[in-house]
Design goal:
Layout (H helix, E strand, L loop, with lengths): L1 H17 L16 E6 L3 H10 L4 E6 L8 H13 L3 E7 L5 H10 L3 E5 L3 E2 L2 E5 L3 E5 L5 H5 L4 E6 L1 H16 L11 E4 L2 E7 L3 H11 L4 E5 L12 H13 L4 E5 L5 H9 L3 E4 L9 E5 L2 E5 L12 E2 L1 E6 L1 H17 L7 E5 L3 E5 L4 E9 L5 E9 L4 E2 L3 E5 L7 E7 L5 E10 L6 E11 L7 H20 L2 H8 L1
Length: about 475
């Protein structure tokens, strides 16, 4: 009995020592795999080159304008390098621009597959990488787009979006003269919703978006047509302009000062708050913000962009943080009628981090100034429930279009759980700030034991006790009697 009591006592002590509840923290998955990076003006070139340099399987580019000249040539060379390391690279370009042929031939001579769209007008500025990274927006691959213009766009990290735009691209690749026959898709996750649109769907997308606005309607357009007595599909452009007039109490419009005179005069005479940008600057936007939803794409406001005679792509993203970022960008251009001086653009390798409690982890940030100033000071604020620190400001002089500034965030959490770290970058003017979110899982430092691990010591003790009792000298002697 004494031996049995010893075994039970030992087992009880083991249970007390090892059966400590371990709370498993399930990390947020960064929006179920849905991440977006707004990107404007000069922030595009370094951001896109970084993505191309890290591509592993495919790069598809559908581009209205290609150039062989700096700084675009750096992107062309990045495509050639990707091709050289085994990445499949396909490029489609608009065939009616003779200026595109030099860049196209440069890529062809390096072994890259290139096609031109010579029938249906290709106005897309689409890049799809590895089937899961998508850029849509207004940036052409031209020196003016990368160095001077007001341009906007967004990078989407999501395999469902990647698959859709892969299919759109391959539809053009297989028959560039036909409209792709795809069903638009919608992805929702963690307070964010993204809907696709393309070609002939664009008109209904914009019409619905404008009419949904109740608190703010901001429109920034490179080309806005108005016909007053429209014929046929010209009514599509007029309808959108009249949609703005119907929302004039909440509307602001900025137009590029080159080819939108009829629309400007009609909006102005109708009481809409409308401005031209500076005559020295090109505002190549196709931006619509309605409350907390944003159209991001490459469609100008003329009827030829609203039917199936032009290849265009875009999305509508609904999220207050994204909408507020683009609203800050829009209002800066609207107020100063020029290119913003400072636009913080940020890139991380990962937005999801696992870290044991009471340890330290460093997350590297790459920051580009998308604004027009080369001497840059960016300020930083960090908000989180865990210990997270970062330099409060950093200054550098941008040497070229691909010049990044590296900085780091240090995490030192003490309590297990799920956390979000919000890092906001802004300039001294505060007009445009950029907030990025890191999803952090802090795991317990207490070892986790499986059922087998837990009961193995008990079995060992029982076994030892058993052999002690059955193989002791006393027991052997008594058995001889």
């Amino acid at each position: 009995m004494r031996g049995l009591f010893t075994v039970m006592l030992a087992a009880s002590l083991i249970l007390v020592i090892f059966y400590i509840p371990v709370h498993h923290a399930t990390a947020p998955d960064a929006g179920d795999g849905l991440l977006v990076i707004p990107i404007e003006n000069r922030g595009y070139a370094p951001m896109l080159k970084n993505l191309i340099d890290n591509a592993t399987s495919t790069i598809y580019v559908a581009m209205n304008e290609l150039s062989i000249y700096s700084p675009v040539k750096t992107l062309l060379d990045a495509l050639i390098s990707a091709h050289g390391r085994g990445v499949t690279v396909h490029v489609i370009y608009e065939g009616s621009y003779s200026s595109n042929s030099e860049a196209a031939n440069y890529l062809k001579n390096a072994g890259i597959a290139v096609e031109n769209d010579s029938w249906v007008f290709l106005h897309a500025k689409l890049v799809v990488i590895d089937g899961k990274i998508v850029y849509v927006g207004s940036h052409n691959w031209s020196p003016y787009a990368l160095k001077y213009n007001n341009e906007y766009g967004i990078i989407i990290f999501n395999s469902t979006m990647g698959k859709f735009f892969d299919e759109y691209f391959m539809s053009l690749w297989n028959n560039v003269n036909q409209t792709p026959l795809l069903n638009n898709i919608e992805v929702q996750s963690s307070g964010m919703e993204i809907k696709t649109t393309y070609d002939g769907y664009t008109y209904n997308t914009l019409n619905d978006l404008i009419n949904s606005a109740t608190t703010r309607l901001y429109v920034g357009i490179y080309t806005m047509a108005y016909y007053s007595t429209p014929i046929g599909d010209e009514r599509l452009a007029d309808n959108l302009v009249n949609d703005i007039v119907n929302k004039k109490s909440i509307a602001k419009v900025i137009l590029d000062n080159h080819d939108s005179g009829n629309a400007y005069n009609y909006l102005n005479n109708s009481g809409v708050n409308v401005e031209y940008d500076s005559s020295t600057n090109i505002t190549h936007l196709k931006l619509v913000i309605a409350d907390n939803s944003v159209y991001i794409g490459d469609s100008n406001w003329d009827y030829t962009y609203m039917d199936n005679s032009t290849h265009t792509v875009g999305i509508v993203i609904s999220n207050s943080s994204v909408a507020n970022f683009f609203a800050g960008y829009f209002n800066t251009i609207f107020k100063y009628r020029n290119a913003p001086y400072y636009i913080p653009d940020c890139f991380l390798k990962t937005y999801k981090v696992d870290i044991p409690q009471n340890s330290e982890k460093t997350i590297n940030f790459w920051i580009a100034n998308g604004g027009s100033k080369t001497n840059t000071t960016i300020h930083v604020t960090v908000k989180s429930a865990i210990n997270a620190t970062m330099p409060e400001e950093f200054t550098w002089t941008r040497k070229n279009m691909y010049d990044w500034r590296n900085t780091s965030l240090k995490l030192h959490p003490s309590t297990p759980g799920n956390y979000v770290v919000a890092v906001t970058f802004y300039s001294k003017y505060y007009h445009i700030n950029y907030t990025t979110y890191i999803y952090v899982t802090v795991t317990s430092s207490v070892p986790e034991f499986s059922t087998w691990t837990l009961f193995t010591p008990i079995f060992i003790i029982i076994t030892i006790e058993y052999f002690k009792r059955h193989n002791s000298p006393c027991k052997r002697k008594s058995s001889r009697k």
